Every structure is written in structure tokens, then in C-alpha cells.
Amino acid sequence: ERRLTYAVYMLIGEAEHWWRGTHHTLTARGVVVDWECFRRMFLEKYFPERVRHAKEAEFMRLHQGGMTVSEYAMRFEHLARFYSQGIAEAWKCRKFAEGLKYELKRVVVPMAITEFPALVEKAKVVERLEGGNRVVKTAEGPAECYVVWQVYQIV
């Protein structure tokens, strides 16, 4: 029950006052106050079900859009916490890869990476190379071949 002790220690202001009152009420009723009890009460108070459902829906709709891979990964990880079904690592990777911009997805998806940190790193490398590719495309000849070779090396 270290998590409970640590979480309560971290509460400040309104949340601290709320928990003191809630803890007193629960113990007076004979409720065993453990981590799961605290977690349930905290989420009910500060993350109502409608908010959790909205975040879960946002997660399911999430695509990279105008974000960098790093920004997309941070947003993805943040929203994934609200997904109620539990996330297997392989599914998480497929969901993330499918949400990438097309020019990144076409390189990353065939790699079939099933470890999330490795997938994010590969996507960052491809993003960096694709960024360079846009500049090089105006040039002709060997420079363009070099960029294609760089992308090939990732695969």
C-alpha cells in the first residue's frame, strides 16, 4: 500500500481537504481504505466517467496530423491511459503506426515492430530522413539516391 501512502502525501489544497473528509467518512462506515478504494474515489471525483469516455474516444480518433512524431507519441501515451480495454503492446504499436502521416506510415508499418519504444524511435528516424528528403527532392541525381538509401537502411 505504498502507492496509497505516496498518493495521499502528494495531495495538496482542495484535493487534500477532499481526501481527509472522504477518508474520515469511509472509515466511519467501516470501509477498508486501500489503493483500489482511493483510486476509485479519486477518479469519480476528479475524472468523471463522461470525461474518461471523451478521452477514450479522443484516443481512438487520434492521428499524427500536424504533430511531430515526438508530440504524437506523447499525446498517444497520455490518451492511452484512458482506454478502458487494456492495451497489448502489439495492438498499441499497430494503433500508433496506423495514426502516423502517410509518408511515415508507408515506411514504418511494413517493419511490423511490436515494441512501442522501438517503434517510436524508428518513426522519429524516418521523420528526420523524410524531412531531409523533401529538401533533396529539388535536387536531381546522386543526392536523391542517397536519401532513398538512408530510408532503406532503416528497414
UniProtKB/TrEMBL annotation:
InterPro entries: Retrotrans_gag_dom. Pfam families: Retrotrans_gag. Residues 6-101 form the Retrotransposon gag domain. This is Retrotransposon gag domain-containing protein.
